[in-house]
Structure formats: structure tokens, C-alpha cells
Write a structure and sequence with these properties.
By secondary structure, the chain is α/β, with parallel strands linked by helices. Helix content is about 40%, strand content about 20%. InterPro entries: rRNA_ssu_MeTfrase_G, SAM-dependent_MTases_sf.
Length: about 220
């Protein structure tokens, strides 16, 4: 599984990843399956161009640790055996790292691009992620209304557009957990009627100086 990461490189990446996991309050043992996923991504990326980030060390920061920076916000859902849909997930980000870190979480990876969906199916199989499935579909065409406790999206679209495309997937009381850069005040103000921002939380991503926020959006309760 790790042929795309020669032993010396894998050792370097492990040494880089472990402090990041610790700073996020995660078990350093997660480094092994996370690097198994990264090895698959590096190998497939040579042919299928799944991500513009080519350097494995950059992938540790910009893909693995960036995805895991929100793990605390799915902890309660995972503890209850709840479900998360990762919309427009691309190569499985943040859904696959979150599924590795929170194995009780039931994750659906929603992606319309066939090459990316094939990669994710292979990654799910190789990594033995029993509670992860791939839905090869456009977000708005996924006919699973009210199925999910939460939906998430990373660098996908504006908050209003995410709600428009994927809001139907949420259970009553469900939450959109949107990964954003700077605090998106304009997007929050433009949320459609019936939706409201429940909070905006700054995220610290080890190895990245860039600003990150997790915006939580839900339906109005009145």
C-alpha cells in the first residue's frame, strides 16, 4: 500500500504528522492509516490529477491536518453513531481523514467526478473503512432527503449555495459544518430564509499560517 512513499520519505512524513496530530488532541497511532491514505492519493494523483498539491509533505499539512482540524465538531455525532455527508469531497477530503480519526462516524462521500469516485472506492476498500461509502452523484441529485445528522464541505462553494444544493440531505436539527478560510460574514448574511449561522469557530491547523474557520449553519427553529 505504501509503494508511493519510499520508506525514508514515509519516516519523514510520519515525524512531521505526529506532532500535528498531538496538537489537535488526536492519537499519534492515527499516523499509520492516514499515511496509508496519503500513499494511495500520491500514487493515483500521478495519473488522475486528483489534487493540485503534488508534494507529499504539503499534503500532510494542506490535506490531512487541515481536514482533521474540525474533528472536535463531529465528535458528538460520531459518539452517537451518527452520519455525515461530505459534499463535493474530491479525493475524500475531509471525509476520509475524519472517518479514520472517528471510526464510529458513518460517512458518505458525495462526488460526481468518476475518476475521483473510483479512487475513493479503492481507498475505502484498501483502508478497510467499513462505515464509509461513496455516492457518485451531483449533490443536488442525491435522493436521500433527511438522512444525515450533518453535512460538510471544504472549499466547495458559498454558504448559500451549499445550503441550496445539499440542505435537503439534513435531518431535522441537522447541521452544515462548512470549512472556510477567513470568517465569511457576507456569506452568512446572504443565507436564505429559514437558515441561520449557529456559530463560527476559528480553527488552528498545525503547519499552516492561513486563517481557517468552521461555520455551523442550521435551520431556524421558529
Amino acid at each position: 500500500m505504501n509503494d508511493a512513499l519510499p520508506p525514508a520519505l514515509r519516516t519523514q512524513l510520519h515525524a512531521h504528522l505526529v506532532p500535528g496530530l498531538r496538537s489537535l488532541g488526536l492519537d499519534e497511532a492515527l499516523a499509520t492509516p492516514l499515511l496509508d491514505y496519503l500513499a494511495l492519493l500520491v500514487r493515483w494523483n500521478r495519473t488522475y490529477n486528483l489534487t493540485a498539491v503534488r508534494d507529499p509533505r504539503e499534503m500532510v499539512d494542506k490535506h490531512l491536518l487541515d481536514s482533521l482540524a474540525m474533528h472536535a465538531y463531529v465528535a458528538d455525532i460520531a459518539a452517537a453513531g451518527g452520519s455525515l455527508a461530505d459534499l463535493g469531497t474530491g479525493a475524500g477530503l475531509p471525509g476520509i481523514p475524519l472517518a479514520i480519526a472517528r471510526p464510529q462516524l458513518r460517512v458518505t462521500l458525495v462526488e460526481s467526478n468518476g475518476k475521483k469516485a473510483r479512487f475513493m472506492r479503492e481507498a475505502v476498500r484498501k483502508l478497510g473503512l467499513a462505515d464509509v461509502r461513496v455516492a457518485e452523484s451531483r449533490i443536488e441529485a442525491l435522493d436521500e432527503p433527511g438522512r444525515f445528522d450533518a453535512i460538510t464541505a471544504r472549499a466547495l462553494a458559498t454558504l448559500p449555495l451549499i445550503v441550496e444544493l445539499g440542505g435537503h440531505l439534513l435531518k431535522p436539527g441537522g447541521r452544515l459544518l462548512a470549512m472556510k478560510g477567513v470568517h465569511p460574514a457576507d456569506e452568512i448574511a446572504a443565507l436564505p430564509h429559514g437558515w441561520t449561522a449557529l456559530g463560527s469557530h476559528p480553527l488552528q491547523v498545525p503547519g499552516l499560517a492561513a486563517e481557517r474557520h468552521l461555520v455551523v449553519v442550521g435551520r431556524d427553529t421558529d
